[in-house]
């Protein structure tokens, strides 16, 4: 069967769906090709016995106007939910005790998380010279400007929470470009943040409040809203052996679908899949050429979700607890989704999302499900004061390619992506191989690409 369309998108995760939503809204003929039998990619929400929980990303940050606009555009089909104010604190584990991450000058002076020497060093941050090494790692930058204890007890756990990564390997310019630009443009994080806060903002920018967000009833409702608006007829699910061939100035996307071989001819192809999936899809580019993209390293992450109908541990008035590497525990952190969002559990219930593995502990990925459950329960019991209590349910979700690491190899990857896009007109390589890994980054990239096409 041969079909013609304007634009093909490979992958129906948040990037592909947002892209298709805006292209279709602008009147373009667009088809999505998805390997799985459901859409949403890593974003999936499960529901049973009065519990609603995420099995991929739990929360995002409302950090850009594109995301605010997306929720406005989908307001008839899903509702943005921002975090309960009571869950604002981030806890950090130090010597077996949780401490709130300081949120202001007073708490920063009082906190036991940072050394006295580094507290003084932070006061001098606005007066320090700016860095000159574009390949400086996050760890080098933070030690230079803020001190080692700030790296160990603020930035290292923060990097675990976002990248499941290693601050000694992530390059600031690629991994945390906003932070890098604050130093480069304003000479200091503190001065830069103050000056940026004073810049005039559009109404939409003002609504990008940096609050933690989900969708009422779980992130699946954002995905369903996108799917509904794109319409089923424009989404091919269960597609196997997807491969693209080039013929003159168009592309043939060939795949197996429900016992049929389908060939779709289009002028534009946008991939949103991971780097590891590209060689098979881009059959017209040799594998060696693609290496600077396919050598992208991913953190493996294990998410264990534990549900308690009648919680008996300590109160959880926080976003969750992050565990610094220097504490030498088996978890990256424990998130408290039922403290962050409303109606996620039965009345006295609690949901905990325990993250393990990451770049520093790939060994945990090799453990059996029973061992992982055991580790998760032990860590919950010992850090949240539960007396050897078993959860009412505990489920494990493993991600071999959870989070791409924007390390020193990123420059070459970004250069090759631009080069291939110029060389093969109509080809766009999107997804979290570039432009950031968070959900807000995914939406911004999709909107930017859609606008460039429209
Ligand atoms: C465990 C975990 C926790 C996370 N936590 C957070 C968080 O708290 N906050 C946050 O902002 N972000 C978080 N992220 C990151 C964020 O969820 C992702 O970056 C984002 O959802 C990726 O969306 P995407 O569409 O680019 O990719 P994906 O969701 O990976 O979608 C890609 C799609 O392509 C499909 N596909 C792959 N290969 C093929 C092929 N050969 N043919 C056809 N289709 C194919 C896949 O099936 C998938 O549906 C987390 C990610 C993970 C894994």
CATH architecture of the largest domain: 3-Layer(bba) Sandwich
Which secondary-structure class do the elements indicate?
alpha/beta
How much of the sequence lies in strands comes to: 15-25%
The strand count comes to 21
Average pLDDT over all residues: 95
Helix content: 25-40%
The ligands found in this model are: flavin-adenine dinucleotide
The largest beta-sheet arranges its strands as 9-8-17-18-19-16-20
Instruction: Determine the N-to-C terminus distance.
Output: 28 Å
CATH superfamily of the largest domain: FAD/NAD(P)-binding domain
Could you characterize the architecture of this molecule?
The protein is α/β, with parallel strands linked by helices. The chain contains 17 helices and 21 strands. It has helices at residues 14-25, 65-73, 105-110, 116-123, 138-145, 148-163, 172-175, 177-186, 189-198, 203-207, 220-230, 278-281, 291-294, 337-340, 369-383, 410-423, 439-453, and strands at 2-4, 7-10, 30-33, 45-48, 51-54, 60-61, 80-82, 90-94, 97-100, 212-215, 235-236, 240-247, 250-257, 260-266, 268-271, 298-308, 320-322, 333-335, 350-357, 393-404, 427-429. The protein has a seven-stranded mixed beta sheet, sandwiched between helices. It has a five-stranded parallel beta sheet with strand order 11-3-2-15-21. A four-stranded mixed beta sheet has the order 1-14-13-12, with no helix packed on it. Strand 12 and strand 13 (250-257) form a beta hairpin. The longest helix has 16 residues, at 148-163. The radius of gyration is 23 Å and the shape is globular. The structure holds flavin-adenine dinucleotide. Residues 10-16, 33-36, 41-43, 56-60, 239, 242, 272-273, 277, 281, 301, 303, 399, 402-403, 431-432, 437-439, 442 line the site of flavin-adenine dinucleotide.
